[in-house]
Every structure is written in structure tokens, then in C-alpha cells.
Amino acid sequence: MLAIALAGLIGACHKPAAAPVNPAWPQITPFNFQISEDANDYSIEGYLAEGREPGPRPAMLVLNGEKGNARECIKSVADFATMGIRVVCVSLPGYGKSSGPGRFVGPQSVETARHAIDLLAARPDVDSKRIAVWGMGDGAVAAGLLMDSDRRPRAFILQSGAYDMLKLWPEAPLRTKLDILRQVWPSIRALKERSVVEHLPGKLNCSILILHGESDRRMPLKQAEQLAKALSKRGAHIQTYYVPKGSHDLGTRAVAGPVRGFLRDNLIAGDQEPLAATPGPG
């Protein structure tokens, strides 16, 4: 009897520890999908970061058109999920681990962005009326071209992009020209097809934050200034944040403050009207 009692006591003292009640947040899970463009199929790598808040919640699509892959991208932007939004980062075709040639933000890049929004909007934990798109580098070009044709996103963040390719090409630095030549022949047709300002509708009812480095040598600051003027003329709610001495590779840390403020005012505010934005130049 004593042996039995001791065994029970020892067993009670060595019960396995309970699993943690609150796992680490935000949680990151894969968000992979495929798209078709002409006769080609592309595999797109993506990741989703989400907090514990029940849905439906606002969502933000981040288009990675810079160095690294979607896994690295989501690590740099996952903290925005703590604001109560779903955050998805995908690499455009030809970037990161997404398949296919880049083609300097060709039609397949815009289709990638559009299909990612389709998937986000269809999720029961996402409020399809509160979706934002954040494009970085070439991802900003894809986001801008999406803005020209897709009315679903209510807010856009365009970072370090080029928005008038016809004006960019003659004055672009050699490095930028070589990057373009590696992906597509810069004919007038090809450049015009990739120019955000060439496709802007007459009226825009969305909020836009333009981020750019004042010392960006790859994509001159005047590209951002020109876009801000064009958007203001079309009624969009514009904010600009030009990073003093900032280069092309701004990352996310240098712009985290303006991005958080913009998201609070224009995405997390629910169905309320966006707060008055700082007027763009022009």
C-alpha cells in the first residue's frame, strides 16, 4: 500500500507541463498560390501574419519587389498585424522564391496583386471593404498599376517606385537602365504599359501614402513628386513622406511611424470617412 501511495505521489509530481495558453503572436502561416498569364503558370510565395482578434478585420497586402523573399518580407512587416489587421506579403514573379521572369513589373505582376486581393477578400476573417496595398520598389509600380484598374483597396502605400517610365528612361542612372534591360526591352510601348501616370482614371476615391528617399539615386524623387501632383488633380487623398537623406532601400523601420498613422486613419477607422490628409504638392 505504501508503495502504491508513493507511486501515486511521484506521478502527481511529474505530470507533464500544460501547453502554453497564449502562443506567440502574430502567427505567421504560408499564403502560397498560382497565377496564369498567357500560356504560363507561376507559383507565388506568400506569408500571412495575423493576431488574435476575431474577424472580420482589415487587411494589408504587401508586394515585395525588392531584395529577399516573402519570408523575409513578412518578418519585417509582421509587427503591423499587432494593430489588428491581417498582413500578407507576397513576392512578385521573378522576385524572392516566386517563379517566372520579372519582366520589369509586367502584366503577371499586376495579376499577382489582383489574385492576392481576391484571396484576401474571400477570407471570412477579413473585411473586404477595408483592404490596403503596400508596394515596395517594383512592388510600388505593381500597386500603382493595380490602383489604376482595381477599385477594391481603400488605401495604398507606394514606396520607392517609379511611376512615369517614359520620363524615367532618358534620365535614369546606368544601374537602373541595366536593371530594366535585363528584364524587358524598353520600347515606348513597354515603358508606357508600365507607367502608372499613363493609366490613372479621371477620378480616384482612395487614400494614398507616398514614401520616398530624398537621396534615391535609382528612382529619382521627382518621380514621387510627379505622381503626387497627378493624384491630387484626380481627387485622391494624398500624404507624402520624403525621408531626409534616404536612399532607395528605405526598408520598413524608417517609415514605420508614418505607415502606422496612415493605417490608423484610413484602414482601422472602420467604415468612417478617412481623416483629412496632408495635401500633396500641386
List keywords for this structure.
282 residues, alpha/beta, Rossmann fold, 8-stranded mixed β-sheet, two-stranded antiparallel ribbon, 10 strands, 33% helix, disordered N terminus
Describe this structure in words.
This protein has 282 residues and is an alpha/beta fold. The protein has one domain: Alpha/Beta hydrolase fold, catalytic domain (Rossmann fold). The chain has 9 helices and 10 strands. The protein has helices at residues 2-13, 70-77, 107-121, 138-149, 165-171, 174-181, 188-193, 221-233, 256-266, and strands at 27-30, 33-37, 40-44, 46-50, 57-65, 86-91, 126-137, 155-159, 207-213, 237-243. The strands form 2 sheets. An 8-stranded mixed β-sheet has the order 1-4-6-5-7-8-9-10, with helices on both faces. The radius of gyration is 22 Å and the shape is globular.
- In terms of DSSP E residues, the strand content is 15-25%
Q: Overall 3D geometry?
A: globular
What's the mean pLDDT score? Answer: 86
What Rg is obtained from the alpha carbons, in whole angstroms? 22 Å
Q: CATH H-level name... which superfamily?
A: Alpha/Beta hydrolase fold, catalytic domain
